[in-house]
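Running this now, will post back.
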Amino acid sequence: MESASSQRAKASLVRSAPLRDLTSKSTRLMTGNVRGSKSTTSRLFTVRSSADIWLLPSQNLEENAAAIVKSPRECHWVIGDVHGCYQSLVELIALLPSSDQLVFCGDVINRGPAIEATMLLAWEMVCGGRAHWLCGNHEQHLIDCLEVDPQDGQAALLTIDTYRQLGDRQAREWLSRLKGLPLVYKAKGWIATHAGFDLDGNPDLSIRQRFWEDYDGRYGRVIVAHTPRPQVERHRHIVMIDTGACYGGLLSAYCPERDAVVQVCGDRKLNQHLACDVDKIKEALTREMTTSSSLVSAKPC
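Update: finished.
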């Protein structure tokens, strides 16, 4: 098994390699299809292992006026829904430059086989100043269920993977940390939030089509997760980075400053299909699109 330093060295070589040197990898075309936004077509490189990473070619994405917040690092990597895929997260972090800032775009918890280890790793990086962890709808759902009367909330809690894996005592020990998670991360020319914004500009942790169709770029380029796609999709004002790691897809990190993507395979234990099983991701997307968006009354998607 390759060491982390060896993996980082390979990542560096791929990042610096001209696009023509990468064309020997298996490729396919992907076209974004979010209505109401101008999408681009990119040549993508299929990922089969943590060493087989790729970068999307540079795009001419429109830059929009946005509030500028001084960020602690020059470059950031915004990471899509981890959903307890601890081993995939470890492999992904090993490939990213240690001097860059990480932003977990929500839904670090639930679904995967190693939720506690994933939470501890993300929180350690937050406390160490390397990362920011944004609140997703899964974190908010756990918060809501923990804060209601135990007699009313126990049934709902037992449906939550994180609660079952942590147990009641540890889940409640995490409550204050989860309640302190920010909803938005701002930097120069871009902003990250879990799912999008409502018409009044407030973060909405479960919004989908309404944001995709109505957003006009007023807050800059918005990087969102929440909705699994077969690959990272970059549109005129929106970048969608959830690539279904917990469904056996990919765990993706997107760098807005370099306009680059690094990916590793998701959790194969949850889905034995190939890492780029587009049909499985589409099936998951269809299921999620028909689920209620309520954070309290329905199990979150």
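The chain has a mean pLDDT of 74. More later if anyone needs it.
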